[in-house]
Amino acid sequence: MTDEPTAADRTVHLPVAAQPSVETLVDLTRRAEDLGYERAWLPETWGRDAVTTLTSMAHGTERIGIGPSVLNVYSRSPALIAQSAATLQEVADGRLRVAVGPSGPAVIEGWHGVDFDRPLRRTREYIDVYRTVLDGETLNYDGDVFDLAGFRLRCDPPEQVPPIDAAGMGPKAVELCGRFADGWHAIVFTPEGLRDRLGDLRRGVELGGRDIDDVRVTLSLPCCALDDGERARELGAEHCAFYIGGMGTYYRDSLARQGYEDTAHEVATAWANGDRDRAVELVDDALLDDLAAVGTPDEVRDRIRTFESIDGVDAVAVSFPRAATVDDARQTLDALEP
After folding, report:
1. What separation in angstroms does the CA of 170 have from each of 73, 86, 198, 209?
2. Is the CATH number 3.90.76.10 carried by domain 9-227+294-335?
3. pLDDT digits (tens, 9 = 90+) for 154-187
4. How far apart are CA 77 and CA 143, in angstroms?
5. pTM surpassing 0.85?
């Protein structure tokens, strides 16, 4: 390992795919803590719920920051997310940071059975309600989506209110993060695409009359560092093809905005037609290296620095291909030790 410093903090985004047990996720978090990672983010999709798992992670560690990335703004009320944050902050002794976002129609409508309506406005109102509740104030909120009145948090609010970040991919979504949230969570971005969206973030900061240093940018980057570099790249390509082709239009459209419009539509078409091998094949070496850091440990350490050195990126979260094994994740964590 080189002792060369990096421009951004290094965190970990725990596996999005189902793991053998909650204890597996706790073990990975504990390993990340021992290796010096700054925070462990936990995704919530249609597997284990984040709040219960984060509680176990908090009890199983001592120093590492924890947080959900992301809680969607449809399946829980904004007040409930604030209640959960207050409780988790207590359990974690002040180590919590929260991230929310709209997710996408495929999950919200297909899994939760809720209309995917006004995602940006809804995210804005969640942030507003969250802060009011955790400031210990009586909740009187007259929004476009929520009309709330008469209650305040029954327990004492946390002395240190956990920051609330938001996820976003499009220009307006990222602008919203800059204007209202404490941070922006980015996913499926090329270096150039990320730089473009950072311009939208700065515009939001200006519109909100804020300081850019008060808005933390975290990039979730698919990483797989294995001695078998070819297998690592295969896992990375399959992961990217799934997000582009199998997760609705959001990731496809985001990639199209980043200069890969034809490829994004070809991958999505192949995936929709059941030709998964062709979809993976379309994620060629150039695209894979633009979206991920995968290969041998030396190759991955070199590639991750490209993203960490982007001006405006505060943290890179090491994430893992969805088909990676627990051992693959452990090897990658070890190889990318901060």
Report:
1. 17, 30, 11, 21
2. no
3. 999 999 999 999 999 999 999 999 999 999 999 9
4. 14
5. yes
